[in-house]
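Exercise 3.2. Students should predict the tertiary structure of the chain below and write it as structure tokens, then compare their answer with the key that follows.

Predict this chain's 3D structure.
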Amino acid sequence: SVMAALRVGRALFQRTHYAPALTRSAHIAVPSWSDYKTTPATKEDQDDSSRAFAYTVAAGGSIVGAYAAKNIVQDFLSTMSASADVLALAQVEIDLTAIPEGKNVTMKWRGKPLFIRHRTAAEIERERAVDVASLRHPEADEDRASTPEWLVVLGIC
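Answer key:
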């Protein structure tokens, strides 16, 4: 019958095509890997090695964390410091020997006018003779100018 012929054909097909895969290779010698295997460690050895690893990871993480925290704090504090242009305006160097007696120089300091006057002896005596009680802010000339021949005044605009 047809069914019997199909069974025979299928058996022939499987025998010719799948036979090498289905046969066992018992004649191949499998090498022994016992020389490469380590002896199982005791529980104490495993605990010590895992504890050492945990301590190493914790110490490394602490060092990295401290370094990161230092950088964050340093970056934060550097944003609060004065910028370079503000620091440049904060310092003014003036050659006082270039100012003759009886003349003034006007400079700019932190965006405000700075008046420097090289006073004559007559001007110094005239300012010392002023009645301090008649001034809006009573203060003697000796208190206003630490060096009498130089008067330095900052203009608040």
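Discussion points: The beta strands are 104-109, 112-118, 150-154. The mean pLDDT is 80.
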